[in-house]
Amino acid sequence: MKIEEYLNTLPTSIMTGEDVELQDNILNEIFEFASLSKNDIFYHLGCGNGHSLSIALEEFGVKKAVGVDNNNEKIASAKKALGDKNLSNWILKCEDVLESDISEATAILFWFSDETIIEKMTQKFATLKKDCRIITIWSPLPGCLPDKVEFPYILNITPFKKSDDLKEQVIAIFETDCIDFVTAWEFAERYSKTISSKDEENIRFLTILQTLVIWINAKNLGIACGNEIPAPIKSYMEILKTYFDIEVEHLLNQNTL
Questions:
Q1: What is the pLDDT of residues 190-207, one digit of tens each?
Q2: What is the pLDDT of residues 91-100, one digit of tens each?
């Protein structure tokens, strides 16, 4: 089956990241990356269990922490966890992020995969006060050049810097116009370790998929090293096809085969 068909067989919650809770050490890394401080009003859109708010308040001393999630059970759980810690200066809202008032935010963690939501929220972010930091994972906001990258963490600061095209965005993220297999694997592994559990088998499988996605995108954009498909890429394509019945070669432009 084509990779798109395989992805469609997975639970929606996996594809959207809805049930992926970032580990506390990862949240600490993200907040260090974004230079979160006592002057910040921090928003986490899709806050889940609320651990991000606890860390923002306890470890980084933010002025205020606000979590938004449309899942009643998660909001209730987050409220209990924050209440048990006797923390103050936090608010949890059970509502759609598209409808939520985020105008006071100075730093926002935003990790969604739904393209429609991302497009609409990017427009909403663009109206926020100057120097508001939007933290994303894996990719920058559409049409925007990142202000800071420590992959897979990406920072866009208002007012946004516009990019001419996807190629310019990818070069800005990878800081090279010659992406080889090693680079693709390194960046894919960073991402899979960020969002995965400690199951090494799952991490490796996700890393293989993401490596192929990174390299194929680079090849199609004309920023992969060399004209030939690297041997490791060919091998992983064959492994996916032989052992998992997942085909990815069709993603390559015909003139690259």
A1: 998 888 766 566 788 889
A2: 999 999 999 9
Residue range 12-164, CATH number: 3.40.50.150
With beta carbons less than 8 A apart as the criterion, state whether 154 and 173 touch.
yes
Q: Which residues contact 141 (CB under 8 A, 6 or more apart)?
A: 118, 122, 125, 134, 156, 160
Scan for tokens 């080889």, then name that residue: 180
C-beta atoms surrounding 252 within 10 Å: 18
Q: What is the pLDDT of residue 193?
A: 86
Nearest 5°: the CA angle 170, 172, 177 is: 65
Task: Evaluate whether 150 touches 33 at the Cβ level (below 8 Å).
Answer: yes
**Cβ-contact 136, 156 below 8 angstroms:** yes
What are the residue boundaries of the structural domains of the chain, listed by start? 12-164, 176-256
The whole model's pTM is what? 0.90
What's the rounded Cα separation, in Å, for the pair 151 and 141?
A: 14
Angle at 234 between CA 218 and CA 212, to 5 degrees: 40
Strand partners, 68: 45, 93
Question: In whole angstroms, what is the distance from residue 20 CA to residue 13 CA?
Answer: 8
pLDDT band at 255 (very low <50, low <70, confident <90, very high): very low
Report the 10 Å Cβ neighbour count for 182: 12
